[in-house]
Amino acid sequence: EVGVESAIIEDSDIEGQNGVIHVVNKVLTPPSHSIMELLQSKEEYSTMADAIHHIQEYEPQFLSSITNHSFTMFAPTNKAFEELGEDNLHSLMKNRRKLKKMVQNHVVDNMFATGSIHTKLQYNVQTEYQTVKVHKEKDGLMVNSAHVIEPDVVTRDGIVHCIDQVLVPERRRRKT
């Protein structure tokens, strides 16, 4: 069955004078939360929300610089952050420069829904910091080596894909 959000399309491709109509089995309502509100409201995203707040303390414009348009966030769960190890996580939270790069490595500057991903193709997706590799496998979507465990959470300002690993930025090589 084909659907949109959690509604099933019951009748499709009905041509009208100025468009096409698809009849669904329930009312579609616009999302009420922003990505940041979603991160703050769900306990499993609290570490990512804390990281963004920590950056905001020193760069008040940081959040508005990534949220002034529709965007996508690959949001690691708290468990994903815990897998970095307590010392690494503590060090990351204390180093604003590394923390900012880590957050930027989870933000894509446009809407990126899983329905646009085709199996057997790899997509190089530019985040706010560097490129990540996205591909679809039999058991779901992958971002680098992270599994997307909850895809396509639609918000007012974009889409969130919950992932099971932190996308740690690779060191950039200096040109000689």
What topology does this entry show?
Blueprint: E1 3-4, E2 7-15, E3 20-24, H1 35-41, H2 46-58, H3 62-67, E4 71-76, H4 78-82, H5 86-94, H6 96-104, E5 107-108, E6 122-126, E7 131-137, E8 140-143, E9 146-155, E10 158-163
Parallel strand pairs: 4-10
Antiparallel strand pairs: 1-2, 2-3, 4-5, 6-7, 7-8, 8-9, 9-10
Domain FAS1: 1-28, 32-167
Protein name: Transforming growth factor-beta-induced protein ig-h3
Describe this structure in words.
This is Transforming growth factor-beta-induced protein ig-h3. The chain has about 180 residues and is α+β, with helices and mostly antiparallel strands. It has six helices and ten strands. Strands 5-4-10-9-8-7-6 form a seven-stranded mixed sheet. Strands 1-2-3 form a three-stranded antiparallel sheet, with no helix packed on it. Helix 2 crosses helix 6 (about 95-105). It is globular.
Brief rundown of the structure:
With 176 residues, this protein is an alpha+beta fold. The protein has helices spanning 35-41, 46-58, 62-67, 78-82, 86-94, 96-104; strands spanning 3-4, 7-15, 20-24, 71-76, 107-108, 122-126, 131-137, 140-143, 146-155, 158-163.
